[in-house]
Amino acid sequence: MATPLSNDRYSRVAIALHWAIALMILSLIVFGFLMTQEWMPQRFTIYQWHKSFGITVLILSLFRLIWRLGHKPPPLSADMKKWELSAAKVTHVGFYVLMIGVPLLGWAMVSASRLPIENKLFFLIPLPDMPGVPSSDAMTDRLKLLHEIGAKLILFLFVLHVGGALKHHFVAKDGTLARMIPALRRK
Ligand code: HEM
Ligand code: HEM
């Protein structure tokens, strides 16, 4: 029988940022793979939205990390085994690294590109090139590969993370999911 959790939950800011960033990252991955297909219509427009939301994820994730350093999360269920606690920690740290690293790689990639494309966030704000990134095809290809690997790693962590969240909710029934979706607790 799982020990019931107290009414602990993440703060409103942490919850809002978690879901906004999760939604944007999943859309970025889906549209990222679609926009690189030859048959996809409106590819140029989707590329611009991709860069705009990608940089938004970068800014929100930096803010989230700073927020997180100043706000301790609620304690995890006392029933979690040592390996489960370690797995959750590794997944969370991995997410933070990728939430910041993947958009940085994307920005570096478009900065290295020799294509004469003006990057404008939301078709309004010019995106400057990342300082110190040399402009070359070889560098662009390398960064493209790293950006793609990073996005695939996010997908991998996502599967572990959601699997864990659902296991807590439906098998352990320990209230872990309600820490991120407080509405579940009232039911
Ligand atoms: C968390 C943020 C991001 C995620 C999850 C993400 C994900 C992806 C994915 C899955 C692809 C397709 C992979 C491929 O086939 O190459 C892709 C491609 C691309 N991304 Fe991102 N991206 C993010 C942020 C950014 C940012 C900030 C920029 C630029 C400012 C960017 C620029 C690009 C470009 C130019 C491509 C096309 C690469 C090619 O032509 O193959 N991305 N992204
Ligand atoms: C790409 C999408 C997602 C990303 C990047 C992500 C990232 C994260 C991160 C970094 C944390 C740790 C928060 C912290 O302590 O600072 C977290 C916690 C959490 N996430 Fe996600 N998440 C995603 C999607 C989801 C989904 C779809 C669910 C639900 C099915 C979910 C459920 C949770 C729960 C319940 C917690 C709290 C776990 C705990 O108390 O340790 N997440 N998420």
Task: Record keyword descriptors for this entry.
187 residues; mainly alpha; Fumarate Reductase Cytochrome B subunit; two-stranded antiparallel ribbon; 5 helices; 2 strands; elongated; disordered N terminus; binds protoporphyrin IX containing FE
Topology:
Elements: H1 12-35, H2 43-70, H3 82-112, E1 120-121, E2 125-126, H4 137-172, H5 183-186
Antiparallel strand pairs: 1-2
One protoporphyrin IX containing FE binds near residues 92 and 177.
Largest β sheet strand count, sense and barrel closure: 2 strands, antiparallel
Report strand order across the widest sheet.
Answer: 1-2
What is the helix content?
A: 55-70%
Ligand catalogue? protoporphyrin IX containing FE
Number of discrete helical segments: 5
Tell me which CATH architecture applies here: Up-down Bundle
CATH class: Mainly Alpha
β-strand amount? under 5%
3D shape: elongated
Note the gap between the termini: 20 Å
* Secondary-structure content class: mainly alpha
Number of domains: 1
Task: Please provide the ordered H/E string of secondary-structure elements.
Answer: HHHEEHH
Tell me about this structure.
The longest helix has 36 residues, at 137-172. The chain has a single domain, classed as Fumarate Reductase Cytochrome B subunit (Up-down Bundle), CATH 1.20.950. It is mainly α and 187 residues long. It is 66% helix and 2% strand. A two-stranded antiparallel sheet has the order 1-2. The protein has helices spanning 12-35, 43-70, 82-112, 137-172, 183-186; strands spanning 120-121, 125-126. The radius of gyration is 19 Å and the shape is elongated. One protoporphyrin IX containing FE binds next to helix 1, helix 3 and helix 4. Keywords: Cell membrane, Electron transport, Heme, Iron, Membrane, Metal-binding, Transmembrane, Transmembrane helix, Transport. This is Cytochrome b561 bacterial/Ni-hydrogenase domain-containing protein. Pfam families: Ni_hydr_CYTB.
